[in-house]
Structure formats: structure tokens, C-alpha cells
Amino acid sequence: MKKVIVIKMGGVASDNLTKSFFSQIEQWQKAGKKVVIVHGGGHYISEMMQRLNVPVKIQDGLRITTEETLKITQMVLIGQVQPMITTYFQQEGFSVVGLNASCGQIITGSFLNKEIFGAVGEVEQVDTELLEHLVERNHIPIIAPLGLTQTGDWLNINADQVACKVAEELQAEKLYLLTDVPGVKKEDQWLKELAINEINELKKKNIIKGGMLPKIESAVSAIQGGVKEVHITNQLQNTGTTIHETGVYA
After folding, report:
1. CA torsion angle 28 136 15 45 (round to 10)
2. Per-residue pLDDT at 227
3. Under CATH, which architecture does the 4-176 domain have?
4. Is 225 annotated as contributing to ligand binding?
5. pTM above 0.90, yes or no
6. Is residue 11 marked as binding?
7. Which of 109, 141, 199, 225 holds its CA 20 to 30 A away from the CA of 103?
């Protein structure tokens, strides 16, 4: 499905949902593009955990997910964030379908490292048949980054990884990883382009670190899996840092 554009929404989701955001979605649809959304919810999950006096622990950019943290994550993603996003889209006249792991087991995964990260998972398979069915009918799937193991255990999966796997499985032409910064920064300059063979050097120099690590690693996986280009940006209208198979610093 080469006409697919996958968008991962992160940060404070409502900040992304501007008039210009929806205008871009509308332009893409008019041009025959199919849109798929994957949403995160880290800000809202952390906020809820703090309210409930549950400690927030992050390692290598991933949230350590105890049984209690998993329940909070499910509650926030499925009960708060996804309904908020779908409502915004519906108010703008778009046809959307909210999806999570319990919807036909749309995302199947496995534990990343249960001893270290708890219920954090990684994606093994995406039900592309369901997604293709929806986008062909001009619905916009809005996917929560939760998965199920083959034995029915729930998994908290990094939303960037989910978006990249969805883009890879659908052979999307573009993937936008929306975040709270306009791209990847090097020496006080936002990079316009970044080749995947340049990334290891930036990691060694600690230029790419923290929450940007899983984002970049997922982007590389998507490019290697056939996605033409990945954009790390804070707005759909800005290309931000474009990650290609090959490229140059700019």
C-alpha cells in the first residue's frame, strides 16, 4: 500500500491537533493518500502515575512497566487519550476507528526483557488486513500502542516502534514521528537530513540519547523494512529531520 502515510503522535496529543494539522490530513486524503495514526500517551500516563503516587521509572527511553503501571497505562491510553483524539478528528469531519490490542489482536508482540522492563513489549506482527480494510474505505485507524502476546498477556509497547512496524508492514511511503522538538539536533543546529549509516556516530557522541533513542532506532528499522522516508518533527507541515537510507548532514 504505497499511498499510506503513518503518523505517530507524541507529547501532549492535543497540542498536535491544530487546524493546520487537520488541513494537512485533508490535503493528503484529497490526493488519494491513506492515513494511519498511532498515538502515544507518555505525558498523560506519567501525570496519572504521579496523581496515584506510583513512581515513574524510565530506562533507555522506555517506561519500566510493573503490573500496576500496566493497568494505569491501559486506563489512560484506552480510556482517556484515544477517545480524546478520536473526538477531535470526528469534530473535524473525519471518519475514524479507535483500535487497541483487544480489537482482533491487531498488535501481537513479546516481552522485551521481563526482568528489566516488566511488561514492556516489542512488536512481532500487525494485522494489516484489518488496517487495509479500514483505509480503503477512507476510515482513519487510530491505534493505541498496546499489544498482546500469543498467550494473551498485555504489553506496553513504545509508540514509535508500533508506528514504525505499522509503516513497515503497510509499506508506507512516509512515516511522521511527531514529538515536542523539530528534529534531531547536532551542535545547536537542527539536521534537515540524516542517513542511517551516520546514526551510530551520533549515538557514540551522545548526541542521540534518552527518548530520542527508541525513536531513531525504530526509524532505522522502518527504513530498512521498506519505508521510503521517516520524518522526525513537531509539525506535519515541517519535514523536520528526514531520515533516509543515504543522505548528508544539513
Report:
1. -150
2. 92
3. 3-Layer(aba) Sandwich (3.40)
4. no
5. yes
6. no
7. 225
Q: Which amino acid is at 198?
A: E
| C-alpha span between 223 and 230 (Å, rounded) | 7
Q: Which residues of 203-235 are buried (b: 16+ CB within 10 A; e: fewer)?
A: eeeeebeebbebbbbbbbbbbeeebebbbbbbb
Query: 40 among the known binding-site residues?
Result: no
Angle, helices 67-76/42-51, rounded to nearest 10 degrees: 120
Q: Would you write out the chain's pLDDT as a tens digit for each of its 250 residues?
A: 669 999 999 767 677 799 999 999 999 999 999 999 999 998 999 999 999 999 999 888 789 999 999 999 999 999 999 999 999 999 999 999 999 988 888 999 999 999 999 999 999 999 999 999 999 999 999 999 999 999 999 999 999 899 999 999 999 999 999 988 888 888 888 889 888 888 888 888 888 877 788 788 888 989 999 998 999 998 888 889 999 886 444 3
CA 164, 167, 173, 176 dihedral sign is negative
- Quickly list H helices, the chain: 13-16, 19-30, 42-51, 67-76, 82-91, 114-117, 128-136, 159-169, 199-204, 212-224
Extents of the domains making up the chain: 4-176
- The Cα 230–Cα 243 span in angstroms is 5
Q: Using CA atoms of 57, 37, 179, 55 in order, give the dihedral in degrees to the nearest 10.
A: -10
At position 181, the amino acid (one-letter code) is V
3 state SS of 207: coil
Is 41 annotated to bind a ligand? Reply is yes
